[in-house]
Write a structure and sequence with these properties.
2 helices; flat; about 0% strand; mainly alpha
Length: about 60
């Protein structure tokens, strides 16, 4: 059986990275569960009522510091 030798720091960093990846995946799944369900009819109604916002600025102000 082959033995691999790594430092404690490398092991700690590897485990930390793995835990972060798993937590990120689980958080994505959890966020997807919390999102409200919107039917196609509701979605069309929302799009009719509220048009897509423009990117035009309403007011601009310049401030000199």
């Amino acid at each position: 059986m082959a033995t691999i030798t790594i430092s404690k720091r490398e092991l700690k960093d590897t485990v930390k990275e793995g835990v972060r990846e798993v937590l990120a995946q689980e958080l994505m799944s959890l966020r997807a569960l919390v999102l409200p369900f919107v039917s196609e009819n509701e979605h069309r109604d929302i799009e009719k009522r509220y048009v897509k916002p423009t990117r035009k600025a309403v007011k601009t102000r310049s401030v000199q510091l």
